[in-house]
Amino acid sequence: MVTLRLATARTRVRTPAVSPGVLIPALCFVVMITSVMQTAVVPLMPDIAAQLGVGTNAVGWIVTGNLLTATVCTPLLGRLADRRGPRRVLLGILGVVLVGSLLCVAWDSLPVLIAGRALQGTSFALFPIGVAVLRSALGPYRLTAALGIMSGTMSVGGGAGMIAAGLLYSDGDDYRRVFWLLVALAVIAAALAWAVVPGSPGSGTGSGSDLWGAVGLAVGLSALLLALAQGGTWGWVSVPTIGCVVAGVLVLAAWYRHERRSDAPLVAPALLTARAVAPAHLAAFLVGIAMFVQFLATAVFVQAAPEEAGYGFGASVLETSLLYLLPGQVVGISAAAVSGFLVRRFRAERVLMVACAIGVCGFAFVGFAHDRPWQVIVAVAVLNVFVSVAYGALPAMLVEHVSLHDTGVANGINAIARTFGSSLASALVGMLLATITIAGADIPSERAFVAAFVIGGVAALAAGFVAGASRPLQFTKFD
């Protein structure tokens, strides 16, 4: 049910146990490991397959299992944090992530590696729970800037993961060298969270009262994500792919009907579809598409051998990380540092519109000009500004309109929207690179990359229109 009340009128701001100058950087590090764990593994996939003696399709479950766990657990853990308090749930997630990371290095086995990656997938819930921590610990004036910094830091973590992989791994090394880094990051993040994150009470209501809601959400989201993740392998019009899509849609429709009728829903339907929050979720989905198109298409493009493809620069993973991604990461971190202040000054919707316009310019530039390394480096830097600022604006669009005790689940839904956008982008880019090829060769054509950049630009443009069409509602609260 949606009622109109002043969202901040009944919210008690808890005094943090530590100063914001310590809490904010610590949480930035904690949530950043989500992106690092997601992307550090991507460059290693071919070598993991070779070292374990498995096929490409089998090793793909290292990513698919991670995303499935993220999709299922993020909204559920966000709601659990709202009810039980974010600190204890945050520490519990970091413990699970550490166990998963240890599994990845303990045995040289694909099933164990997939299981470890699945446990690492719970890290996707760190960001929405981090938002809940900041909201309970900081006053409204500091909150907006802190959200911008933390969101932007997470957005650049993806590039940081690629850079770390390039620095730690070279051909012939044991792939587990990179996973040892993930173990170290999990340990450091857990120690920081234990020492720094303040305790705060949850709502304490509704726990364990919506089992069918949890099952329906998990099954429906998993079916849709499985279709996106495996559609390229199964075939986009194959029975398994279409079956997963149909099953996912039907289950989610039944889940939504159940949640509308429930007295204590796991996720209030208004947190999905109400006019105050739906634009933020749709914009997150579109930004997720644009972000992953930029990341994936650029990384593949610069590594293409020019003597074979007629484009690209033949860059190694290390060169890709340091030469083409690192400058953009530096620019993105700088943009993240100021995004929160921009949101506080000009409102989140307007900042998101400007960020999306910058993204459209970046995609247009790289689509037309990609013959020289400096052109790609500049484009990546511009696109990192877009992603960092957009990530900072999205949670601010939500916290204005939801109560304190809905912060975790609302941002969990938003994070899943980004995940689905990224998964769709991965499928689209993969399909383009596989179908638009050079005549007589199994090599993607330059036109495939241009088409991918066009898709990224269209997604950024659409996100800007969504932000512009949204109407801020100052006094909305979801019960």
Can you tell me about this structure?
By secondary structure, the protein is mostly helical. It has 2 domains: 411 residues, MFS general substrate transporter like domains (Growth Hormone, Chain: A), CATH 1.20.1250.20; 55 residues. 76% of the residues lie in helices and 1% in strands. It has 19 helices and 2 strands. It has a two-stranded antiparallel ribbon with strand order 1-2. α4 runs parallel beside α7, α10 packs parallel to α18 and α15 runs antiparallel to α16. The radius of gyration is 21 Å and the shape is globular.
At a glance:
With 479 residues, the protein is an all-alpha fold. The protein folds into two domains: 2-199 and 266-478, Growth Hormone, Chain: A, CATH 1.20.1250.20; 211-265.
Report the major sheet.
2 strands, antiparallel
In CATH's first tier, which class of the largest domain applies?
Mainly Alpha
In sequence order, what are the helices and strands, one letter per element? EHHHHHHHHHHHHHHHHHHHE
Shape: globular
User: What percentage of amino acids are in beta strands?
Assistant: under 5%
CATH superfamily of the largest domain: MFS general substrate transporter like domains
Structural class: mainly alpha
CATH architecture title of the largest domain: Up-down Bundle
Q: Give the termini distance in whole angstroms.
A: 6 Å
Rg, please? 21 Å
Index terms:
479 residues, mainly alpha, Growth Hormone, Chain: A, 2 domains, two-stranded antiparallel ribbon, 2 strands, 76% helix, globular, disordered C terminus
